[in-house]
Structure formats: C-alpha cells, structure tokens
Amino acid sequence: MPTFELGPNQYGKAETRLVRVERGPAGDRITDLNVSVALRGDLAASHLTGDNAGVLPTDTQKNTVYAFAREFGIDGIEAFAERLAEHFVASQPSIHEARVSIQQYPWQDVDGAHTFRRDGSEVRTATVHHGHYGTQTVSGVTGLVLLKTTDSEFHGFVQDRYTTLPETRDRILATSVDATWRAVQGRPDPAAARAALVEAFADTYSLALQQTLFAMGSRVLQRCPEVLEVRLSLPNRHHFLVDLAPFGLDNPNEVYFAADRPYGLIEGVVRRDGVAIPEEVAWTF
Amino acid sequence: MPTFELGPNQYGKAETRLVRVERGPAGDRITDLNVSVALRGDLAASHLTGDNAGVLPTDTQKNTVYAFAREFGIDGIEAFAERLAEHFVASQPSIHEARVSIQQYPWQDVDGAHTFRRDGSEVRTATVHHGHYGTQTVSGVTGLVLLKTTDSEFHGFVQDRYTTLPETRDRILATSVDATWRAVQGRPDPAAARAALVEAFADTYSLALQQTLFAMGSRVLQRCPEVLEVRLSLPNRHHFLVDLAPFGLDNPNEVYFAADRPYGLIEGVVRRDGVAIPEEVAWTF
Amino acid sequence: MPTFELGPNQYGKAETRLVRVERGPAGDRITDLNVSVALRGDLAASHLTGDNAGVLPTDTQKNTVYAFAREFGIDGIEAFAERLAEHFVASQPSIHEARVSIQQYPWQDVDGAHTFRRDGSEVRTATVHHGHYGTQTVSGVTGLVLLKTTDSEFHGFVQDRYTTLPETRDRILATSVDATWRAVQGRPDPAAARAALVEAFADTYSLALQQTLFAMGSRVLQRCPEVLEVRLSLPNRHHFLVDLAPFGLDNPNEVYFAADRPYGLIEGVVRRDGVAIPEEVAWTF
Amino acid sequence: MPTFELGPNQYGKAETRLVRVERGPAGDRITDLNVSVALRGDLAASHLTGDNAGVLPTDTQKNTVYAFAREFGIDGIEAFAERLAEHFVASQPSIHEARVSIQQYPWQDVDGAHTFRRDGSEVRTATVHHGHYGTQTVSGVTGLVLLKTTDSEFHGFVQDRYTTLPETRDRILATSVDATWRAVQGRPDPAAARAALVEAFADTYSLALQQTLFAMGSRVLQRCPEVLEVRLSLPNRHHFLVDLAPFGLDNPNEVYFAADRPYGLIEGVVRRDGVAIPEEVAWTF
C-alpha cells in the first residue's frame, strides 16, 4: 500500500475583527483591524492521527488577539503583529513559525470627540513572519485608486498577427495600487511611503504603466531611507474613449467607458541597488 | 385554455459606466457615473408576440447616455437624469414613463491638475421618475459609514420569553447611512444634506437608533428648506464588548468584536409637518 | 420652530443565519436559512424621545428565530416565515405588522447519511407580510442562471439617432432568473414553479427577452393552479460574438465575450386573467 | 544620487471572459472560461524608459485567447492554457516565461439541445507555468462547499492562559474546498480527483480538520496515480450550537448559528512518498 507524506502546512484563525477605542479627555481614538494568524510547527500528529496535543486552537488565537489589544494596546499594526507572532512561537513548544497579517480600516474624526466616519479609500496592511529567520515585517497599502486624465501614452509595442490595438499618444491611466514595502532595520513611515506612491503616479509622464510602476517604487525608496524593496501590483483599469461619430458628435478625450474586465495587470519589484536583502518569506498555498 | 395577462413591466439598460473629463487650463474635472435606465409604455406586443416595433433597444439607451454627456455635459446627476428621462418619453411614442438612476463615485483632486484619487467613503445617488405625474427627483447618499464611541444607550425595551439582551447605558453605535431626500421645488444642496446627516448623528445623545434616525432626518429638513421628506435606512452594525475576564483582564469599553451578521436594520421616513407631498413613485419588482 | 413628523417606519433583525439538522436513522437532513425580520407598529416614542417601551429588541427577534426552529421545526420556509410573522404581531401589543424574508441555500446529499455538498446554483426565497390585511406569502427563486445557444433573435426594434445595434437573427440569450409567485389560497409547489421557468426558457423561440419573460410567467401559471401572479426580473447578460476577421478567422457563432456591465434588465408581471388578486404588499425604502 | 534596480516583474491581461459554443446535431456544448495571462522576460526597458519594443500588449494577449479558441478549440483547460503559454514564449523573443490561469464555470445541460443551467457549486481551475523549467501544470477545484453533520470531534488540544474553547465530541464540520494537484507526467482525471476529495471528507471520522485534510489529499493520490502532490486550503466554517436554555428549550445538536468571521483556515500539502517532484513554480506578488 502506498504511503503519503505531509508537506508544508499551516493553520490559524483568519479575519478576527477587532475594534479598539482609546478614550481620552481630548477625544477618542479608534483602531479598526482585521487580523489573520497562521502557525507552523510540529503539527504532523494532528494531520496523521488527529492527535491535537500540539495544536493551539484557532479559537485561542482569536482570544489572544483580543487580550493583547487590552494588555499591550496597539502601537501600530506592525508592532502589534510582531508581538502576536513572537508570542505564539515563544509560548508554544510545538509552534516554530507564525505569520500575522493585519488590515487596518481608516476612520476620520468628525467632531473632535466621539464620532468617526469610515474612510473607504484605502486599507493599510502589515504582514509579519516570525521564525528561525527572525522577524520579517512587510508594510503596505491596498485599494488606493488613482487616475490621470492625461500625460499617459502607449506606443512602440510589439506587433504580431493578433495585434489590433492602435497606438495612443494620450489616454486615461487608472489603477488600484496594491503596494508593500520592506525594511530590515527601522520602521518606515507609512504615510511617507503612501505619499510617495501618489506623488510619483501624478508627476510621472507615462509611456507605459510599467514605467509608472518603476517610478512609484523608486520614489518610495527615495523618501523612505529604511525601505529596501517595494512590490507593486497595478491593475490597468481601462477607460475607452466612446466613438460618438455615429451620432454626429466628436469626442475630444471627454467621454469614456470604464470597463470592468478584462484588465491589464502590471506587477514588479523595485529594489535599492547593491544592498543585500534577505529573500521575502512567503508561505505558498 | 386559460389566458394570462401582462401586468406592470419595464425594461432598460442597467449600469452604464460613464466617466467624463472636463479639461481646463486650471486643471481637469472628472465625473464618474453608473447610470441605469428603465422604461415603461406600450410594450405588450414585445411580450406577447415578440413584435419589437415599440422597443427602443437597451443598447440605444446606453448610446444615448454617452452622447448626452458630450452634447449637454453633466451639470449634476439630478439634472442629467432628468434630461435623459424626459428625452426617452418625449422622443418615443411608445414610451410613457422613464426612470433613470445614477450613482456617482467621488474623486479627490491630488495635484491641482490631472491626477485624482478615488474617495471610497460614500456614493451620491439620484433617481428620477418621469411620466404622466411629471418629474419626480430623489437625491441621496449611500455607504456613509459612521460610528460613535459613546453617548448611546439602549434600555427600557420589551421583555418577553425570548429576551436575553441586557440593557446598556453605554455602547458603540455604528451604521452605514443610506439616505434619500425629496423636494417638489428647487434643488437641495446635497453637501448640506449630507453634512446635516453627519452632524445629527454626532450630536444626538442616542437612546435608540430610531431616535438617531429621526434626528438625522429632522436635521436635513432644518438645513435644506426645499426638502420635504427624508428616507433613512440604517443598519445597526453591532460592536460587542469582548469578555476578557477569563484572561484575568477587565475591559473598560475598550476592546470590541465587530460583527458581520445578523445586524439590526432601522428604516423610516421623516417629513415636513403639514405639507402636502405627492406619494413617492416606486416601480415595484 | 418647524416641526417634523415620522412617516412609515420599520425595524428588525436582518440576516440571521440558521442551520437546522434533523437527525434520523435513514440519514440527516439540513435546512440552511438566512432570516430577516422587519416590524411595524406603535414605534413613534422610540423615534421621538428614545422611549423603547414598545420596542421588541432585534436581538430578541434573532433569539425567537432560533427558538422557533427548535420548538416547531421548519416545515418549509413559507410556513416558518408565517409562524414567525404571526407570532410577533400576536405577542406584542405594539407590533401591528411583520415582514419575514427567508433565503434558503440548497444542499445535496453526498453519502445518504451525514455529508452534504452546497448546491450553489440558486436560492429559494419566501417573503411573508402579516398585518391587518391578513397574511400575504410570496415565494420565489433567485440566482437561477440560464443560457440558450440559439433560438433567439432581436430585430424590428425602434431606430433613432442613437441606434447602432444591428439586428440579429441568432444570438446567445442568457439571464439570471429572479422570480417570485403569489397565491391567495393553497401552497404552490416551488419545484413545479421552478421547473416551469426553466422549461419555458428552453422551449420558447425568442424574438425578445420580453417574450421569453411572458412565456416563463405563463408557464408557471399553467403548471401551478394556485399561483395567481408571477413577477420576473431578468437581466440580459450579453454575450458578444468576437470579431476574429483581423486574425484571418471566421467566427460562425462560436467564440463570445461574456460582458459584465452594462446589461439589459427586463422586468414584468404575468397574471391569471380575470381573477381578482389583492395588491402585493411592499414596504418601500 | 541613489539608484534603484528592477526586481522580478510580470504583466498580462487578467480575466478575459470567453464562452465557446460547439454546435452539433446532437446538441451544443459550451465552455465558459475566465483566462488570465502573465508574462516575464526582457521587460526592463519598458520600466526604466518607457520603451515598449519588447512589450506584447495585454490587448493582444486577449485577442490571442479568443483567436486560439477558434483556431484550436478547447480540449480541456489544461491543454488550452499550455498552448497559450507556449505560444507567448515561442513567438516573442522578449518573453521568456508565461503563466496562464483559467477558471472554468460549469453548466448543466437542460434540454439535451441548446439550453444550459449554470451550476454554481464549484469552479474548475488550471494554472500553467512555462519557461526554462519546461511546462508545469497545476489543476484544481475551488468553491466546493462540504458539510458533515456529525463524525467530527475536537479535543486534546493545547490549553494556555487564553484558552476558553470547550472540548467537543460531536460538532458540525464545514468547509469550502480549494484544492490543487500536480502531476509531472500524464493528465489526471479532474472528476476522479474531485470525487476523491468529496469521498474522503465524507468517510473520514474527523478528530481535527487537519486530519480530514490529510485524508483528502491522500485519497486523491490513491485514486489518481499520475498525481504527485495535492495542496489544500480549507476554511473551517464554524457552526455554533445555539444555547436555547434561556428559553426553556434543550438543543440536542439541532439548531446552529452559521458564523461568517472569524474562521479557521487549515492549509497543507500531501505528497507521494519518496518521489522526487520539482518545486512548484510560484510568482510571488
């Protein structure tokens, strides 16, 4: 009878929704998080025989997230994720690696006191891996939707049998930025990184979304000296100029159809030159 | 053989995605819309025999949306919806009523020139009915998410066999505002209406979300003299205080679990007293 | 100071997720529901002063849903919704009307015993209104996606300045059926109604989706003698033949692009001729 | 001035929606796909200077997908993805690697002729990487939702300060299977792999979802001799027994609350023992 072996594996509690309120005389602050934990270690027995002696229940992981928010507060999502990841590995002999991913939903103060409005424009992210390789922290932003009405061209591309796209010297360029950045030392300022992304998107005269991507990554590296590497995933949200000629109308780059699918997807890494940086930890599933 | 009759019916093109760019020396402006059209009229033949002589294709409706954006511009979603609705009825003998619903996605200027950031916080809406009853315009906002960290109680409610909810003198109150308002004359300022909603949510000491709802509707009526009626649909997005006692911790209204489902849903209309207002047109499907 | 009045209003617990398991020697059965309750009555005090003496908390409504599933079982979603709606009105002096809406998610038995597979193809629905008008029950199905590869034409339609659509004698017709049906007496068989919808979609040679809609509604009326009225909301999910000529290829109705937006939306009611049927109750918000 | 370098990068057209109809005297067949292409190669110039001489536009990739569906047909999503991936690398000197991912939406024949019903229960997947490492094909299924009403326990787990979960000897076990499998030679039968997943979920008496995961992966390896490795991502969709005691009712494993978030997430790989298998190609972004 053939036998089979257990390969890489992990488990944890995903999407624990935590809202923390800090109450103060000068007004409250709220922190709104979605926390996902994944753990690795000596977990073969649970898979092979259902012996859970090494399994910290995912329910306990959820409890720990809530308890830590009270015990230690939340001084930034990176620090909170690191504290949690280190705790699971340090406290459980069976757990050797932990990944904690956090999404933070921003809120705007409305009245300087107790009322807040959800700012749905974008989400801050942090992912921490902790294990024999130490602690690796990746920060980011996702869902940051940007659009330029001009200063974007696309031409000079490969032509083959299946090419019908005309070259363009002026198009709308729109994307939803999904960016992450890594430092080995220090804590990069996420507001500075985000501002660099927006600024470079705005002031780069674009001959390709790839060129804009490289400019955006480079700008983060310029503004945030601790950052060694930036990853960008940029959908090209096509806006097609509508042909109004059948109705006796011209369309001088004014009226567009915003398409859903398909879309281009441009992804790439921009790194600080000549600086050694350890491979990014990724648990592939 | 039994026969069957056609009751109320309508058809149209839904979710035409239109982006218009106004280009100017002092910077561009963009208008980002999702336009849905529905038409009623002498359409029995199409249903009964497939005779489409009275049917203006939904594809033509889409074309009209794009063409009108170029021919007439977009001076507010209410005016654009009214123009479209009146056109379909005026130009087609077979069409007697039109409903045009528009969602507007806001964008923030980034550089004072050509670059914009999508503001995902809320969506502006307008729905226009045009027919033998004239033109009825309903404006609104949806997806406006608000939260208060205090100044909300809930007690004194009915107790029956199935009641387990404890009374509370201090809770988080959170909702996602879906509001519409109607005027018979004039064009209410949507920014003023929206500001009134936020302000009343913030400064109303709440004994029930129903009380907050009435206060929000009343505030719009106070601030916008043209408005005769406000409709509000307010989900009660529960935030439950986490019991940390098992971990030897107190929880002085600090750490909450934000629940997805189920949720309360509080809905109501607030009207100007003693003012006749025609019934709101609604095509029920 | 102007005063404002409270218009129509309602409140309740939405989306209570309930799974019931009936355990038996010949295998288990599961019922998977999403239950939403809305109540109307003497609720002005809660809105005007925050006096909740007439308010049955939404939390209690949720508890009641779970308790009734145990006390009375679930003998069909219509009966379960009716029982709940009648209970809220009968047991609470302040509550005069109730609406209970249920979505049922189907599961397929896998092993004749304890294991089930979620059938994601469609959802069964029921909505019950109970009040001074008695009890009105509407049954339905939603998310039933159908496609015909041929036997669909569209021509003879209105041509105006904005028309570019060519006539077609052969196209794909695809929709996602959202249907409801009403009886005044008796309990129509939902499986028969659903089968009638599918069958009429399949065997109707279609000159317009409107014609297919009328045929589908009529077929339900033919097959289900208790049904007096059928409502249908049918998006026209466009499938566009791709122009392959630039690549030196023909495309004999073989390769299509399935578009997301915009889409046509065809809606209508089909009624039994010459039969009085009370207006459908609808709480408009 | 610091300089920055371009790291790993890729681009392509995502989510091209393709429906192919094969017309025959014994009835039609439809193939409904969502195709995403990503390419790697000599693309630095586009990033650094906007020189697109090596860039095959994503629009051309989309055209190629449609043209290939006509030219070569679609004999399974794996073969179609392989043909596309090999084409992009073979035909473009600048392109060295290609990844083609396909989702297939299943449809059920309704009338043996021209009408089909979308089966929304699950989606078939294939991902092909083609490059210097040859061609690697990964097949899978996602969205396969399974539930067991019994034969699931969870106890003997780690207890720490943050543990409150009681042990259970009988619970509902529910998940949404996301599975992929790999072979180096041959073409595993996806129906057999899927059946093995369902069967093992059903007949494994479960002491942990991890144990069920290993059993499911092992069963695929048993039934599909070509498969060398199975990856499984299994959310633990919690169903909590509702406490009905406050209402004077027992709850003998009958009435449950189906929770949305948080959820457990159990992931792992099961491999054929002692068989060399190349690392799975993954482009990390």
Automatic annotation (TrEMBL), chains A, B, C, D:
It catalyses: urate + O2 + H2O = 5-hydroxyisourate + H2O2. Pathway: Purine metabolism; urate degradation; (S)-allantoin from urate: step 1/3. Keywords: Oxidoreductase, Purine metabolism. It comes from the Bacteria. InterPro entries: Uricase, Uricase_CS. Its EC number is 1.7.3.3. It is an enzyme of class 1 (oxidoreductase). Pfam families: Uricase (PF01014). Catalyzes the oxidation of uric acid to 5-hydroxyisourate, which is further processed to form (S)-allantoin. Belongs to the uricase family. This is Uricase. The lineage of its organism: Bacteria, Bacillati, Actinomycetota, Actinomycetes, Micromonosporales.
